[in-house]
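step=encode ok
step=design start
structure_in=
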């Protein structure tokens, strides 16, 4: 038998789920590409994790075959796992091997903490 406290907890949980959906509860990633003056900007929106990292890899790595400057815009990135870090490292290595340049921009404080703790902030060019 449920009581008023149980109903309140269920209502509160439902509210939390709705808040997560409304505020950053993205469980996917969208990529927008813009080519301007020979520079490709790849804007990432959502989560960069083991599920979505291959999607970014498919866009980022081949870009260096034709483009010499790639900017990763992380303004809308809400989460990055080690799989996302791996793709950034692959991009950096590919850029160097092809004589290209990779810049990371729009880094939030939370993502910067991840980059700092892992040493990536020393490897990447961040603006």
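sequence_out=
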């Amino acid at each position: 038998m449920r009581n008023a406290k149980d109903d309140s907890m269920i209502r509160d949980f439902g509210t939390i789920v709705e808040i997560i959906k409304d505020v950053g509860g993205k469980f996917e990633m969208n990529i927008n590409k813009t080519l301007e003056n020979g520079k490709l900007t790849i804007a990432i929106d959502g989560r960069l994790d083991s599920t979505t990292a291959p999607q970014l890899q498919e866009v980022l790595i081949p870009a260096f075959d034709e483009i010499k400057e790639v900017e990763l815009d992380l303004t809308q990135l809400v989460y990055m796992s080690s799989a996302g870090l791996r793709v950034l490292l692959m991009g950096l290595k590919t850029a160097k091997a092809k004589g290209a340049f990779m810049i990371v921009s729009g880094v939030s404080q939370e993502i910067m903490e991840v980059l700092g703790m892992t040493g990536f902030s020393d490897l990447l060019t961040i603006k």
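step=design ok
step=annotate ok -> The CA atoms of residues 68 and 100 lie 4 Å apart.
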